[in-house]
Amino acid sequence: MRISIKYKFLIPAVFLLIAGMGIVSVVSHIKAKNALTKVIVDEIENMTHTTALSMSSWIDHRKIDIGNWSKQGVYKKALLNSFLGLTARTFANEQLKQIKQDYGFYDDIVVANLSGEIVANSDPDVVGKFNVGDREYFINALKGDIYVSNQIFKSRARGNSIFMISAPVKDKEKVVGVLFAVFDLNTLVKKFVDPIRIGKTGYAYMFLNDGLIVSNREDLKKYGRNIKDFCFGQTMLQIQNGLLECELNGKEMIASFKKLPRINGTIVVTAFKDEIFFSIKNLGRLNGMFTVVVALIVGLVIFIITNSLSRPIQEVVSGLKKMGAGHLNFRLNIKNRDEIGEIGHALNGMAQNLEISDLRIKRQNILLEKAKDDLELRVDQRTSELRIAEQKYRGIFENAVEGIFQTTLDGVILNANPSFSKILGYNSVEEMFAGKKEKKFPVSKKDSLKITHLLETEGRIVAYETRLLKKDGSWFWSSISVNKIHDEGSPGDYYEGFVIDITEGREKQKAQREWKAAKAANNAKSEFIANMSHEIRTPLNVLLGFSELLSVDLNDPKQESYIVAMRAAGKSLLTLINDILDLSKIEADKIVFNYEPVNLKLLFLEIEFIFKDKICNKGISLAVDIASDIPPLLNLDESRARQILLNLVGNAVKFTEKGSIKLTAEKKENQTLNMIDLIIKVEDTGLGIEKNQLHSIFESFKQADGQINRRYGGTGLGLAICKRLTEAMGGQIGVTSQKDVGSTFTICLKNVSILSDETRTVEKQSPGTQSGLPCFEKKKILIVDDIESNRFMLKELLIRFNQDVLEACNGQEALTMARENKPDIIIMDIRMPELDGNQVTEILKSAPDTKNIPIIAFTGDVVAKTKTSAFEKGYDSYITKPVKIGELINELYKYIGEAHFDKQKKKQAQSLHTIVRSDVLNPSDLIIKLKNEILPSCLLHKNSMIIGQIKDFSITLQQLADKHHVPQLAAFSDDLTGYADLFDITNIEKKMNDLPKIIENLIERLIQKP
């Protein structure tokens, strides 16, 4: 089929035109889309950055405000603990309230003192109700600088999100308190974030580090309330700043986000692509329509032109041949305006353009050569930089502390640093690789399989603990971390990781576990000892309680000796229990020392009296010597000092069959006026101790010789307790001894305080310390104990005290009887099955009708924490098993009233007011002897306190009373003799102090005429 030239020209031309315009349209569409995207991205990034800067600037201004307000004098004065401070707080409350109202964006403004207590507040009702001492913003402000909290808190009052700005309140450059302001985060968001709009659908919001979205706009609820709920949320939380293209509910969007520099939050500004590219879509449709219209018009014009083609084309062909031969400088001379003429003109233009293009290509070649040279120079520079970087990272690899390695997938070591070889016991990497073609990673086969499995499934392992084999064949514990590396430039995948030697750390962990186990065992031992003490004290309570009752009732000397033996055995058992308990408390570091003024002379006399009978029976002597420069009163724990001396002197008495024992006290020379180093020695001429056994005698349950234990008895706890008590009081104890010659135990208590006479206190003698049983006012007392013998013993005692007694054998019965009978006092056993004493006490103390009944705890637990716990649980008093009559009387005396003693009545009957001159034989002679002999002797013996002289003086008084028939003076002599027999120095001093006044009163009565 023959096609006309006009169609041959028309069809391709129209096709090319349409294609060209389509390409131009697509390119322009893409460029317009990219340009618009850049504009929108720049806008939202600028908006994000500007908003973040505005919020930071706003916070900085608030920081300046808070700093300026903290310098105002009213807040310094409000922190004063004075009337001026109280007045200033009222003014400060009003001023803070006014600031909050004027500015409108403060949630609260607060002034707190150094301990964190709120002293002024914009809401005065909050003052004194909170303490901010442990808050970060408070602690940082105390350091002297204004602090902006980077954390978002939940308000304790309203539950809203808040942040703080705090500033120190200073007085003469000294921080005296903190002024801090509370800002509602929603207020800040409403001011800076919510007003942002990008087009019609773009918006802004803020989220916190935990992902919580903060915004006041109602239309944001459809997007969720936590950024983690969206696919892009985790990315924003991780990188914190940047630009992100993502999809939300099927719509593509662009989001710019930036972390705020001041507070713990991130600003997000978003725009949806549908709105951004809406105009671009319309432009594309217009371009398509325009292309079609232009193509139609151009096709029509070409059709018309080709139809008018009439000129010969020979010249055109000739010109084309010249062009084909490379002669581009020709020009066709065509004058007509028809189709061929237009082609000729076009051909001339083409030739000209080709000539220009040829010149440009030549010039471009010149430029390409130059660019090639420049590129080669840059390649050389980059190669040099890579070499430097390689050297740098090679240095890090070589000098790393961790052992770094690379292995094949089957465990063959490819590369390692020097630290890796040293960890395995080699001197260098070369030594490690020497002698073998392949060096396997030195892990056991079992762990190798496990590590390979983890790497194949997870691709990496972190801090995996395993044992590795050293060069010398020993195994050590290590922590390894390995990654699987895929490198396209290498033949295959490989493993890379590092090794840390953790042998020392695991040994420390093992030691820590063993220490915890030992501590748990020690606690279990202490608890067992406390339980054992309670269980033993319960029957011992009955034994000693009834023996004390019998000692009051019996008059038969033989029976009294039995009771004395029973009480001695019970007290020995009690001493053993106390020793074990003391040892347990010392080991648990729970022993408590009570320091008080102690007269060392009286303490030594007491020790002398205690061992008087034993010493006399054995035919040995005890000498007491206190240096003259020892102060009268020292600050010591008297009970613990007595306990140490009883053990040491008791051992000396026990192991000394002949000779003497000496108890001495002295101080080191050149001591200060307020403190001394006190040295106490106990010397004996007893059995002595072998030199090879001296190191073990202070150990628990240890004695110098098993033979001694069988002969003399004892548990071996005494010296262990002495040593630990002495060391707990900051002192030292030592011993020197020679077999069959004797021993000397030396105690050195360092830095013992010297007390003046003014610090000495004289305690009133309570009713429980007097002889005889009291007769109290009749009351109703409820005894609660699950052990019948305990109840019976207490009941017998209380009946003798003139009391009505009720009994309950368990906690439930105690509740019923307390509610029905309303006793005046309840004696409550703490340990009982089912409902124990603590539970019963809590119920009674919480009930209105029984809460005022005094409850006395009755228990065998004697550790300090048990007594403290008893008062915390609501008990009013506390007595221990075995019960002491004096202790029980003292406790009852607190709630019933003053006791009346039979002995007191007897003394009242023998009062000086009852003396009649006519009843006294030869009163004149008595007056002379009282003035000239008794009164001077009284003043002399008052200061000596020598027991033998006191007894002689008492005998003189007794003889004088018998001779002149003065029973009142005889009664005084009886009391004084009794106190001398007991070595009761306190009562002897009291009697001797009272005697001059008694004699003067007696002389006055005798001088009076009938």
Beta fraction? 15-25%
| Structural class computed from helices and strand pairing | alpha+beta
Average residue-wise pLDDT: 77
The radius of gyration computed from the alpha-carbon positions, rounded to a whole number of angstroms, is 53 Å
Helix content: 40-55%
What is the overall silhouette? elongated
Give the low-pLDDT segments.
706-713, 758-772, 899-910
Major beta sheet, specifics? 7 strands, mixed
Instruction: Give the N-to-C terminal Cα separation.
Output: 182 Å
Work out the helix count: 30
Number of strands: 29
Oligomer: single chain
For the structure shown, list the relevant keywords:
19% strand; elongated; 1010 residues; alpha+beta; 6-stranded antiparallel beta sheet
